[in-house]
Design brief:
single chain, mainly alpha, globular, disordered C terminus
Length: 146
Amino acid sequence: MARLGPLVIRLALGVIFFAHGAQKMLGWWGGAGFSGTVEAFTKQGMPAPLAMLVIAAEFFGAMGVFFGCLTRFAAFGIAAVMTGAIFLVHIHNGFFMNWFNVPGKGQGFECNLGYLAMAVSLMLTGAGPLSIDALRGGKWTDIDAG
């Protein structure tokens, strides 16, 4: 049963980041889409190339994680985005999320920390079973294959 751990983490993290990445990349689910997201991020002081990398890491990283394709690389992209989100956006709001939507109070970093832990876990373990990485059998993509 322990072998299924990476699969469970992969599917959950992939779905979560696909939703957020699709908002930023495609404008789905009320998102701003690619150009709107780049514009919003640059207005907040982020260089446009970095904004594009964030969008790509969330959207394509989510698919890589979900399907278990180049999982460690895809998870690294998500981990980098979550590290940036923690230290550049959320840390000044404290640990906890703003559960009661207090006006003027942002969200803490607890959720980002959970996602970061999930991504780092996949970086350490690889994709696990039922993944493209496992099918390929590459020793750098799945811990059991090498």
